[in-house]
């Protein structure tokens, strides 16, 4: 029942073992939770993981099933061994399609790891898997299959995963509610619906053929709102062991994808450890590594170095690349009057390159070649918003929307190459300007999924930017953003540690869920209702267990009422027994039974005047 | 410069001194901050406090003035002595009006303090001030004065306070932005504007004539969005010393009003200590104390006990009373099918009473008499929403809106008595149902100010309900709510401690400020812009000092880069020097100067094609 044990993993053996800390990752089920698997129908071998939260017998309710991005780490039946990596679930699916080949792959070069050597070198992953790529220039993307009418195992997996609890919702809560701003959320998710959404470009399945460890998931406006957690070392701090644990920790609390934004040494090797152990899609910004390869001098970047990095990372299995190809030379002057200039790292690097050479971005010029690489591995595009606003003052300005127009143009080119695409969005935006971001993106990018960072709704609260941005994230998620990139309390101040990662993930799970509720997702409210019933019936353990963070809920309760007996108490420390509205409500219901209140309520609704005395005086 | 010193106050001497901890409250200026005062014109003796945040000389900017609710505690020039209470600022203003009289007042009775005795009895406050009340049935409310065309010192004080920085905004940022949903926020706040808004009932000035220590403030849709922090002991925990410090601590971080929701023993004496030391309006729910007086048995409540409690608290100086007079007998049956019944404590108590006696609420029946008491002291109404939803499932239901209709009816009655009124609102509401709450409230209650608790936008995150509700609070604040009642991380789980109070206040300052920005408050963005400029120019100290919580911002930064030298560094731990987009942006601007980019930008805007090469291939 304790939710945070750790499994200690011996450091991998290696011919020349550099000093490495012992690897520990967090494993074990969340409180009262069990991992269950649902089998496919079209593809009977697929097993879709879900989490079942058991309730107290007095509830008289079945366990509640919830979406589960945490992978085998929360499965007590799974043998976790970081040095071996996760089971290669999708390997046979990819092979069965017969359109790829394995090959020797690119050799790792010293610059891939920032020339780290000796005890500064993170060891290579224990097993070297030969990469696969498309045969004969074929498109091996989920988009290509979808367009060809093929329902892949990935698509059925996703249908089952997304369909979670909708049957139950249909039975217990038939009334649909919400406002989805023109989205088309179905009552029931079929594999065919998944295929169709992918074929239209309205959703993507980030699933590099070289990341077979990943459990398929989908990003699109007509599915559950997803969240991304960023991890990664920097030149200043952190190690491989920390980053692998951050990834496991982030998905434990609900991150749907993880971006590895490492910018220090050992980028190649750290990423390999992360991917081999990640059950969620991994995204990167290849430009960061390319810049490291040229010693951090933006002007020295070239298409050749960048292309080499794309292939390096595609072979490793990165599922989506942020590509800042929308920032063009002629956009840069639009930023000169900004309060905070260009705040995207990738954007500023490309702007620097463009200005220095006074030529068009090589990412823009070589975009079709980038597409060809992406489609050979099924790496999805995440078209970067290099000109996103970095302050309230710069929101929705000419630079930002000029770049968005280019992203719309690039979306269509990527689609012509059968590549999957999502679009990155801001940033810092006050509430009244959020909706315009969503509306423009949908229109300009033809409904390709939107993936936003926050947005932060004010600049004045460093240390609390998970909250300033959680507000904006919930709103833009409601308006139609498909994935929300988290912001941690350390934003603008430092690199997030483990606690910050958790706070960021929980905050964004709140935003995503609030958005799902507001959009009218058919089953989203089941968890709210189950928790509220537990609250009303004083099932404290169920309240904790149904919450996004059972450990914190329990710890907060126990700070004032630590005794086990209080877990059964029909009151809490806030009001004490005399003022407990919930307890009094139960008494009212008991009275109601005596007085036939349901009958009274009917009369009231019918407009009878029995219970409507007029105000006596005044 | 350190922001959290404490002043140690010896326990008050008392004829029979019970054991009391030594009183400590937090004093001292916030970092880089000074207290300044602005004098009145109509009333030259008024001195309106503001906080000035000094910036680094390299900024070339004057200090930034911000609204300051923290009172003398952050003024190094003020002598703080809890046992003496704060200076009685408004005493002469009240006396000068000549419409009140001082009198002996009600004697404190044992039941006022829950029959606490001996060492369980909190000592009385050191000084007994004779209460004042209206002479000859006069209305001594700010509403009555406003209607009579009188601009009170309170109104001029507020005009200066609210007008803060608008002159500067008019000079530096002439363009108004935002969407205020039909509010009428002026470019300049005059005392006459304040008077007019109060006269219309669109704003209230909670200012009991017996709380002359309070610095006048206003709650209304056309002013800055305010926040309230709840404190108070319960039968289970906490003491007077803690509650006084919680009040001081809450206003230090920005609480505009404080509600004392004590429900344990010593309610009377603890409240007296709080009021005598509070520079912000204090609100209460008199029903809580009335219930204590009848031993916690709701059925034993009576109009007599309640009336006695109103007078007791009005004499002490409570500035606004939550009165649950809108919950009527015939509404109760509407709650029987709810998931969480009645979650308002006051609502559940009154429902219990109504059902037990099977008669109309004595609060509703005696409402005109309540008005007469309120107007004799200028206690403002906060009409309670006893039927607010306690879960997503119950949001915007028939019970909630039936009560709101009654609140609209009562608003007009209170106005007929020259009483000031605001209306309390929910609760738990998914995002798509928030707007309806605001629109209905404005319509039904004729634009009386709305005062909402959150709302929480999902039920599934106990332990993080400051965030689930901060989202809803920002939105409803944008839509027009005048004051946001904070929710702390302990909501639903326990009583907030000091840390929780701070987290709740900062979260709600974020929500209120985000709302001000989105409404287009003329000067709100000045602070965002100042902080963003500091960020862009690597003025780390200024970033910390301009933030809502300088201590936390600094501590987070120092976790990774603790050295003083890093406070001048042109990068941070997130990206390190090579990837710092801000640094690169500066290089871009340097290049821009060389290349004449401003000129290029102009050409681009004019539609020139010089910088718009077509995509080369694809």
Whole-angstrom Rg of chain A: 26 Å
**SSE-based structural type of chain A:** alpha/beta
User: Which blocks of ≥5 consecutive residues of chain A have pLDDT under 50?
Assistant: 1-21, 608-618
Proportion of residues in extended strands of chain A: 5-15%
Number of strands of chain A: 17
The two chains with the largest interface, and their residue counts, are: A-B, 148 and 146 residues
Q: How would a textbook summarize the main sheet of chain A?
A: 8 strands, parallel, barrel
Continuous helix count of chain A: 21
Shape descriptor of chain A = globular
What does the average pLDDT of chain A come to?
Answer: 90
N/C terminus separation of chain A: 60 Å
The proportion of residues forming helix of chain A, as a percent range, comes to 25-40%
Strand order of the largest sheet of chain A: 10-11-12-13-14-15-16-17
Oligomeric state of shown chains: homodimer
List keywords for this structure.
21 helices; eight-stranded parallel β-barrel; alpha/beta; metal-binding (chains A, B); EC 4.1.99.17 (chains A, B); disordered C terminus; homodimer
What does this protein structure show overall?
The structure is a homodimer of 618-residue chains. Chain A has 618 residues and is an alpha/beta fold. Helices cover 38% and strands 11% of the residues of chain A. In chain A, helix 8 packs across helix 9 (303-316), helix 9 (303-316) runs parallel beside helix 12 (367-377) and helix 18 packs antiparallel against helix 19. Chain A is globular and about 85 Å long. The model of chain A is unreliable at 1-21 and 608-618 (pLDDT under 50). At the A-B interface, helix 8, helix 10, helix 12, helix 13 and helix 15 of A face helix 8, helix 10, helix 12, helix 13 and helix 15 of B.
């Amino acid at each position: 029942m304790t939710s945070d044990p750790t499994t200690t993993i011996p450091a991998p053996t290696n011919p020349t073992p550099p000093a490495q800390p012992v690897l520990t990752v967090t494993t074990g089920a969340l409180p009262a939770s069990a991992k269950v698997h649902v089998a496919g129908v079209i593809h009977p071998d697929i097993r879709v993981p879900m989490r079942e939260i058991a309730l107290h017998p007095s509830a008289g309710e079945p366990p509640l099933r919830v979406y589960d991005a945490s992978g085998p780490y929360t499965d007590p039946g799974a043998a976790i061994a970081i040095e071996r990596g996760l089971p290669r679930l999708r390997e046979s699916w990819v092979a069965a399609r017969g359109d790829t080949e394995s090959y020797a792959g690119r050799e790792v070069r010293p610059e891939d790891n920032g020339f780290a050597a000796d005890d500064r070198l993170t060891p290579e992953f224990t097993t070297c898997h030969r990469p696969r790529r498309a045969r004969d220039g074929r498109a091996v993307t989920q988009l290509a299959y979808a367009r060809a009418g093929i329902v892949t195992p990935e698509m059925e997996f996703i249908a089952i995963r997304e369909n979670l609890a909708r049957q139950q919702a249909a039975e217990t809560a038939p009334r649909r509610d919400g406002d989805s701003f023109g989205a088309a959320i179905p009552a029931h998710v079929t594999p065919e619906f998944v295929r169709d959404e992918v074929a239209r470009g309205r959703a993507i399945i980030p699933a590099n053929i070289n990341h077979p460890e990943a459990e398929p998931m989908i990003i699109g406006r007509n599915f559950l709102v997803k969240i991304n957690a960023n991890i990664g070392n920097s030149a200043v701090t952190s190690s491989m062991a920390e980053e692998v644990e951050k990834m496991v920790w982030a998905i434990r609390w609900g991150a749907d994808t993880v971006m590895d934004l490492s910018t220090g040494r050992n980028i190649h090797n750290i990423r390999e450890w992360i991917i081999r152990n990640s059950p969620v899609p991994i995204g990167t910004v290849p430009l960061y590594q390319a810049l490291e390869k040229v010693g951090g001098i933006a002007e020295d970047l070239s298409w050749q170095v960048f292309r080499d990095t794309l292939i390096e990372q595609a072979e490793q299995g990165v599922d989506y690349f942020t590509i800042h190809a929308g920032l063009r030379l002629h956009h840069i002057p639009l930023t000169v009057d900004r309060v905070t200039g260009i705040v995207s790292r990738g954007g500023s690097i490309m702007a620097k390159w463009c200005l220095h050479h006074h030529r068009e971005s090589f990412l823009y010029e070589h975009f079709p070649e980038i597409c060809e690489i992406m489609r050979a591995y099924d790496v999805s595009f995440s078209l970067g918003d290099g000109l996103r606003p970095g302050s309230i003052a710069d929101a929705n300005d000419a630079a930002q929307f000029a770049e968005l127009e280019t992203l719309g143009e690039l979306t269509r080119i990527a689609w012509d190459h059968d590549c999957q695409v999502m679009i990155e969005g801001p940033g810092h935006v006050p509430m009244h300007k959020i909706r315009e971001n969503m509306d423009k993106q949908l229109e300009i990018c033809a409904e390709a999924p939107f993936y936003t960072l926050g947005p932060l709704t004010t600049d004045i609260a460093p240390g609390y930017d998970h909250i300033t941005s959680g507000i904006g994230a919930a709103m833009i998620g409601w308006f139609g953003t498909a994935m929300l990139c988290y912001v941690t309390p350390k934003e603008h101040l430092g690199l997030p540690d483990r606690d910050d990662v958790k706070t960021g993930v929980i905050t964004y799970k709140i935003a995503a869920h609030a958005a799902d509720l507001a959009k009218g997702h058919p089953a989203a409210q089941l968890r709210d209702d189950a928790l509220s019933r537990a609250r009303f019936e004083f099932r404290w353990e169920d309240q904790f267990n149904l919450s996004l963070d059972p450990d914190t809920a329990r710890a907060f309760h126990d700070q004032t009422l630590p005794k086990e007996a209080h877990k059964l108490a029909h009151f809490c420390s806030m009001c004490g027994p005399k003022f407990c509205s919930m307890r009094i409500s139960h008494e009212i219901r008991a009275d109601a039974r005596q007085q036939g209140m349901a009958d009274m309520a009917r009369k009231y609704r019918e407009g009878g005047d029995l219970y409507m005395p007029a105000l006596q005086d005044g």
